[in-house]
Amino acid sequence: MALGALIIKEKLGISDRETVEQIKENPYLQYFIGLSDAIY
Question: Where would I find the Transposase InsH N-terminal domain in this sequence (predicted)?
């Protein structure tokens, strides 16, 4: 999960907090980092 979040952060060029917000809001990013249940 941490590696996936780091990849998202670097590819999008955003801060740590923005990365968390993006993951919370985007079910595709949640799937990418391995969350089995989407957090909408």
Answer: 1-36
